[in-house]
Amino acid sequence: MTTISEPSPVPDQTVAEPRKSRKNNPEKTRENILQEAIVEFVQQGLSGARVDAIAERIHTSKRMIYYYFGSKEQLYVEVLEKLYGDIRNTESRLHLTELAPVEAIRRLVEFTFDHHDRNVDFVRIVSIENIHNAEFVKRSDAIRAMNNTVLDSLGVILRRGVEEGVFRAGLVPLDVHLLISSFCFYRVSNRHTVGEIFQIDLPAEAVKQRHREMICESVLRYLQA
Q1: Which of 88, 68, 87 has its CA nearest to residue 78?
Q2: What is residue 42's predicted lDDT score, i.e. its pLDDT?
Q3: Which residues constitute the domain of residue 144?
Q4: What is the pLDDT of residue 26?
Q5: How far apart are alpha carbons 1 and 97 in whole angstroms?
Q6: Which stretch of 1-10, 76-85, 139-148 has the lowest confidence by average pLDDT?
Q7: Which residues contact 169 (CB under 8 A, 6 or more apart)?
């Protein structure tokens, strides 16, 4: 009698899926470096900041940071560009020139106040750059160009205000910009000394709202016809 043997087991044809390779994302890497660089420069200043410390925070190498930015100084310039760019880009989304002049000015003042209050890092980096006599701002055409946009918008708003009889003539956009920025910046940059000397809690919500309304009214009364 012929014996029929059972067929041999068929080898498992399942092929393991290849491991997905991690794709490099240069923009994400640059953004991560910039974010950690902001922390380092705010805490240590330009002179005290260490590229090694930035690399440690994002688990990368010092060589990688130099690959993207070239030097600590260039990284600092791009931090400045990012922080100035953030305020100007957000400002542009307010579409101020489409609003009535008085409403546009109020919106701009409120935005500036809130942005400075919420972005202490921006205030501190600008203060650090002033210690360096704007040496690194001078190296960036981008910073000069992006900040001129606010003066262009202010010029349009002020001219329309004069034409409509709600603002007085002879207003200089840069002067108005300085008036708005000065108080919004000062109460953040000097909050510790002012708070201690005058025993006032500047971050307290009631104080913030009082100051926010005060600067709005001050600017609008200065502008009014």
Answers
A1: 68
A2: 95
A3: 76-223
A4: 83
A5: 100
A6: 1-10
A7: 162
Specify whether 35 is located in the same domain as 86: no
List the structure tokens of 83.
Answer: 């922080």
d(CA 72, CA 87): 23
As a whole number of Å, the CA-based R_g of the chain is 27
78-96 burial, b for 16+ CB within 10 Å, e for fewer?
A: bbbbbbbeebbeebeeeeb
Contact in structure between 155 and 213 (CB atoms under 8 Å)? no
Residue 32 lies in a domain: yes
Closest CA to 98 of 88, 112, 108, 87: 108
How would you class 118 by CB atoms within 10 Å of its CB: exposed for 0-12, middle for 13-18, buried for 19 or more? exposed
pLDDT at 101: 98
3-class SS at 224?
strand
Split at pLDDT 50, 70, 90, the class of 25 is confident
**What whole-number distance in Å separates Cα of residue 209 and Cα of residue 203?**
10
Distance CA 77, CA 84 (A): 11
Q: End of a domain among 40, 70, 100? A: 70
pLDDT above 90 as % of the chain: 85
Question: What amino acid occupies position 137?
Answer: V
Same domain, 55 and 85: no
E strand or H helix at 68: helix 62-69
Q: What is the DSSP letter of 60?
A: -
